[in-house]
Each structure stands twice: as C-alpha cells, then as structure tokens.
Amino acid sequence: MENEYSNPFGILKNPAKIYVYGPNGCLGDPVVETKPKLEAWIDSRPNVPKDSSTWVKIMCVGYRDGKKTCFDVNEYGMVELPADNPKATNGQFTFEGHVVYKYYNRNDENGVADQWGKAEHIVGLINAIIEYRDTYPNDLLDIGDMRSPKDGKVPKNSKGGLHHGNKGAVDIRVLGKGGSFRGEFTDTRHDLERSKVFIKAMSNNGYSRLFVGRNIYEKLKDCANNKLSVHQDKPGDKTHSNHYHFDVD
User: Fold this and answer.
1) Which listed residue, 4, 56, 100, 231, has the most CB atoms within 10 A of its CB?
2) Region Disordered: what ranges (predicted)?
C-alpha cells in the first residue's frame, strides 16, 4: 500500500516528527523527516572524477544519495528521452514504480530518431515536470517531438519535411485535469492555471521560448518574463493549436 513517503511527487503534507534524546536523556526538539527529492542531473561515470581527462558525461534521474538510473550521452552531447521501452512508439518512463511522464509518436516517421535532446535540456525538461507535479502530483504530461541524435531537425509528419530547428525543441500536449490530453487549447478540458504553472516550471529550468496557437495566446502571453518569451502562430497557421512548443533560443 502506498504511503505519503513512497510517492515522489507532491508536497509532503504531514511530515513525521522524530524526537531525539540528548546526552543527559532529555527529550530534544523534534526533527522533521522529509522525503528525498526526485530530480535529474548531469554526472560522470562511477569512479571517474569530473576533473579526470577520461571523464565521461552521463545523465541521471533519481535521488542523488540513493537509487538512480543513468543514461549515456553521445558524442554530440545528446541523450535519448528516457523511456521504459525506447522502441515503443507511445509509452512512459517509470522510476521506482511511479510514472514520471508519458511520450507519444516516438520515431513514428521515416528518417532520424526524434526524441533526443542535449543532456542539459533533458535535465531541465524532467526537472520542470517534477516541479509542475509538486503542484499537480497526479497529472501525467505527454511529450512529443524533440531533436535528432546529432542535435538536428526531425521529420515533421507523413507528408514530409523537417521541423524543430531550434536548440532544445520539445512538444508537449495540452494540459487539463489529470495531465495532457489529445486535443486543442479550445477544448473545454484545457486548464489555464495548469498551463501557467507548467510554463513557469519550464522557465525556471532553462527553457527560454514558448510557441502556442493563436487560439490561446491572449490568455498565456502574460506568462512571458525575463527568462522566457511567448509567441503565437502566424495568421492562418494552426501548427501550435494543440500543443506547447518550447525551445532554447
């Protein structure tokens, strides 16, 4: 049975208090026990110090002082978005039995693989999702197209063409109660407050530009700040009417 410590998402509402006895047997002040912080970070291979000439970068997800899962970084500094089954078109990434996020349409078109990112960008994306889920712990976000293994553009759709020419490009489906859904921003399921919380989390974790559809821009343009700009599609273009597109301009 899950308890409040086993779920890594959300704020601990009722932390346990442990009373510590001092050297004279007197009851001391209570120490609040908190759960470890789930996060992503860049590290080096075990037993190889970062100042070594043989240092090899890896990306890790988990607890810095506990269990973690690590992923290789290729010669271009890129990491494939972690997944339980990297060959599945639609799936999820799970850590300690908890789904961290979902993904969709992975490598679904002919051409280069399409869910890769610079290690620092993947770290930022995962940490932004974790930050968002501190507020909405039961929501699952669904990640789409990103970049190629060589940090290039990826196939756009079955009609051909390439897209995502900017660094750190990533698509995420629209948010509503429970997380991402397949639909447009005009769908009644869309939750404006969830959008704002997620945009702020992405801004806090290194993403500097957001594109959305003209159907929601007026309600989200005030999310722009000194770290992130918000843009809309050109008239007649509905490219981003059904997802958030973030990148690092």
Assistant:
1) 100
2) 230-249
Q: Is residue 224 part of a domain?
A: yes
Q: Is residue 4 part of a domain?
A: no
CATH number for the domain harbouring residue 109? 3.30.1380.10
Domain count, the chain: 1
Q: Could you tell me if residue 195 is left (phi over 0), alpha (psi between -120 and 50 degrees) or otherwise beta?
A: alpha
What is the token pair recorded at 86?
């990297």
Q: What's the pTM?
A: 0.86
pLDDT 10s digit of each residue in the chain, 249 long? Answer: 344 445 777 644 444 444 455 555 555 565 555 678 899 999 987 665 666 555 578 999 999 999 999 999 999 999 999 999 999 999 999 999 999 999 999 988 888 899 999 999 999 999 999 999 999 999 999 999 999 999 999 988 767 788 998 999 999 999 999 999 999 999 999 999 999 999 999 999 999 999 999 999 999 999 999 999 999 999 999 999 999 999 998
Q: Let me know: does 146 contact 202? Beta carbons within 8 Å.
A: no
Which residue in 83, 63, 54, 53 sits closest to 71, CA to CA? 83
* Other CB atoms within 10 A of residue 207 CB: 24
CB atoms within 10 A of CB 60: 18
DSSP state of 82: P
